[in-house]
Amino acid sequence: MKSRLTLGIASTVVVLTLGLVPGSAGSPPSDTTGGTASVKGTVKLNGTAPNQKPINMTSDPACARQHNAAVLAEEIVADKKGNLQNVVVFVSDGLGTRTFDVPAEPAVIQQKGCVYLPHVLALRVNQKLQVLNNDACTHNIHPQPVNNREWNKAQSPASTAEATFAREEIGIPLKCNVHPWMRAYLAVFKHPYFAVTGKDGSFDLSNLPPGTYTIEAWHEKFGTSTQKITVGANETRNIDFVFKSM
Question: Whole-angstrom Cα distance, residue 27 to residue 206?
Fold first, then answer.
């Protein structure tokens, strides 16, 4: 696996757009009475994406019989336009000493069909992580952090497990010791300014205090890319990240 915070090979495109209304990526802090800012954009893959490999579940018939078609690995997922999925985009510098309330609602990841859904999940420091087992078989939840406590827990069918992470950490592998093909990634933040790209590769970091920020994009195979930008009150800045195909 690529290093969690190593630099990937990437090129970047920056476009400035003025006067757009910011979205709702997080609750604005108290120093934004003059207006908030937004950073939006898309993550692209330059080149042809490798074919997604089918997952072999024959070692556990209870998993295999849940699927009528092949289940594909999600290490690199991009559409025909190059829009790259499962990229974590976030503010890595510029918020200073600001603090933010921890969400009361849990961040949820489920085990369904013997895969983790979603493949990449972002949550907050000390926010409750809820892991659901929606399968008829036993799983084993095993996050492997570097800066947080590692834990390993068997989970029976139709049950829920909960945990929290005390420190910020990007790209925590999450595996199942029972089913070796099951792998996901967690990204834990001390602020609300982050997003995980979906099928269209887009991200939206809204309700930012005006200021100068380093925006970072992380992908499990391509590493990281960063851009430094300045955004004013009631302004939306559009930036794109482009990773080179392997």
Answer: 9
| Interacting residues of 135 by C-beta distance below 8 A, sequence separation 6+ | 62, 63, 66, 111, 112, 113, 114, 157
Tokens representing 175 are 């595996």
* Among 173, 211, 177, residue whose Cα is nearest residue 191: 211
pLDDT of 113: 98
Q: What one-letter code names the amino acid at 224?
A: T
pLDDT band at 29 (very low <50, low <70, confident <90, very high): low
Residue whose tokens read 């003025």: 18
- Residue that the structure tokens 């190593």 belong to: 6
**For residue 102, how many C-alpha atoms fall within 13 Å in the half-sphere facing its CB?**
18
Please report which helix (H) or strand (E) contains residue 122, including its range. strand 120-124
Enter the tokens of residue 194. 């982050």
Of 1-10, 93-102, 129-138, 211-220, minimum mean pLDDT range: 1-10
Task: Give the chain's mean pLDDT.
Answer: 90
> In one letter, which amino acid is 14?
V
Per DSSP, the three-state class of 44 is strand
Question: What's the distance, Cα to Cα, between the start and end of the chain in Å?
Answer: 13
Q: In what order do the strands lie in the sheet with 139-143?
A: 120-124, 183-189, 169-176, 139-143, 153-155
Which tokens sit at 22? 């910011």
